[in-house]
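Example 3.
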Amino acid sequence: MSEKATLEVNGKKYDFPLKTGTENEVAMDISSLRSATEGIITLDSGYKNTGSCESAITFLDGEKGILRYRGYSIEELAEKADFLEVAFLLIFGELPTKAQRDKFHTDIKAQSVVDEDVKKILEAFPKSAHPMGVLSSLTSALTAFNPSSVNVNSEEDMYKAIVKIMGKFPVLVAWAHRKKQGLPLDYGDKSLGYVENILKMMFRQPNEEYVQNKILVDALDKLLILHADHEQNCSTSTVRIVGSSHAGLFASISAGISALWGPLHGGANQAVLEMLEAIKNDGGDTKKFMAKAKDKEDPFRLMGFGHRVYKNFDPRARIIKKAADEVLEDLGIDDPILDIAKGLEQEALKDSYFVDRMLYPNVDFYSGIIYRGMGIPTDMFTVMFALGRLPGWIAQWREMRLNKEPIGRPRQLYIGSTHRPFVEIDKR
Ligand code: SDX
């Protein structure tokens, strides 16, 4: 592989170094482009061809359908690890020893109380508020109760901020859910595991003991692992660029939650269920919705299909599809929505429109079916995605700050009016 790329503009040649990553990906370093060429920049709408950083956290190969966290395959992690181990791995770079994992959990539990005044903010929301908007607001509000910004040069300070958000975030998730359900706000139970605690905080009824269901615990643990990180996706890039201005960790995560909310991104899991419900209520005619998805005049898209990077099966979708079958069977649920989803998938995988564009089911296509089977309301699906993605956002923000990356500030190609003199209003 050559060590450089050469650009020729108007007969003049410019060399740019080529960098090769540990998985033999190659990047052209154009950091000197504008100065060397006296003003030429690149243009890449949606950054489809542009690397924003060098990262050691997550590797994915969209053509081969490979996903690894710190070198470990998503298949092995989903099968053999639990969510706290994976969170530790993503954030600190290595799988924890049992002692490290237990200390991480103990330190998280010690930070799992949220200031009572946060409830006053929550009370101000109408019950109709979407939980993602509530979660983003409450996460940003945490900054008010934890005003000291993280000293990233202090391992101890960084660790404290990490266990703080890992401890408080699940409480905010549970409160966002219980607010909509009209249930009293609940606190966790320190005797429980991380995921058991989340389920109890979310679902405990005030007049009865909450009985854990191992099927739900295992399913949620696996789903959180599968959502934990995904290199430079839209919401993670948001967390990184907000943090690059040296805004705090909580403020950066709040911004990431808002980016994840969009139906083209994490909001797709809610949109998938709404789409499947619409197909079911319309008599189950999947062909009609396939036609809509292919009709350029129709803004409808097959939600849960396609991906910016995966041009093959999303490995997470394979795992979740298998888990959906198992969980619904274990719970004794016969959900026609699952059959509609499978029918839609089979049709799309044979349809040239989808095949030619390499549109396959992504992580969001089946996850909502499991959440629904677990009794989680549809508008909480993306909140569950955020709960899983939290350690990934933390890991990526920490890496960006430790690498002392510069403030993110893209250029533009101006195509507006050239200079023109002001005209007084009575002369316009
Ligand atoms: C997530 O980036 C990540 O890693 C995200 C994520 C993570 O873990 O963080 O993996 C999570 O966000 C998964 C994606 C969830 N979104 C959806 O399921 C929404 C439906 N999918 C699409 O909107 C779309 O596929 C995107 C947004 C996911 C990707 O869009 P791209 O890469 O910008 O591709 P594109 O819009 O340029 O589409 C290319 C072609 C177009 O047709 P042509 O112009 O070539 O004729 O494919 C078509 C699109 O119209 N197309 C679809 C389609 N997705 C793409 N047509 C119908 N239905 C779809 N779902």
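The chain has 18 helices and six strands. The longest strand covers residues 12-20.
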